[in-house]
Amino acid sequence: MLLTLHPDNPEPRKVQLIQQCLQQGGVVIYPTDTIYGLGCDIFQPKAVERICRIKQVQPAKAQLSFICHDLSSLSAYARQLPNTTYRLLKEHLPGPYTFILPASRQVPRILQSKKHSIGLRVPDNTIARTIVKELGRPILSASLPGELVEHYTDPEIIHGQVGHLVDMVVDGGIGGIVPSTIIDCTGDEPVLLRKGAGAWKG
């Protein structure tokens, strides 16, 4: 199913359809402020496993992150953050960044890595954040399968190529080809792990 939403004013009825799909354990492809991603409700273990099968990875070893609505919802899934880290997040979010933070006990067991850390995002994308707000909890985020990043900018092409793997493709317009910048904040100083769409001076 291909569902087109207005990028700035997502239609509530359509957002509700996506929310219901996620609540029922569905997997969707949806827009962010960088590239289109695979998403599901983090509290639906079978949906998490399904994304990992699509990506051919194990849940605890997968490079998965949580899409949060804002900083306050993000802080529920990260252990108490020092003021310097919180200021850093406030400076850069919403935006094209993934911050690796120490995971709190709220993180579902299936997603707990051996490093006890989690990637957290607050994208500058109205559709993604509206879906999360409506759902009332984060959605899991993973990149689309395969290496054909340039093919994954157009939702109609995405639907044609990998739509059969998911329950719904959310069309929010043409996406980007550069992923988020990843910053590891689990140590004493933030460390750049991947230079992506977000500028970084650290």
Protein traits:
DHBP synthase, globular, single chain, 10-stranded mixed β-sheet, alpha/beta, 202 residues, 21% strand
Describe it.
- The mean pLDDT is 91.
- The chain has helices at 12-23, 45-55, 71-75, 83-92, 126-135, 155-162; strands at 2-4, 28-30, 37-41, 65-67, 97-102, 117-121, 139-143, 168-171, 181-184, 191-194.
- The protein is α/β, with parallel strands linked by helices.
- The protein is built from six helices and ten strands; from the N terminus they run E-H-E-E-H-E-H-H-E-E-H-E-H-E-E-E.
- The termini are far apart.
- A hairpin with a 6-residue loop joins strand 2 (28-30) and strand 3 (37-41).
- Helix content is 28%, strand content 21%.
- Strands 1-8-2-3-7-4-6-5-9-10 form a ten-stranded mixed beta sheet, with helices on both faces.
- It has a single domain (2-194), classed as Alpha-Beta Complex (DHBP synthase).
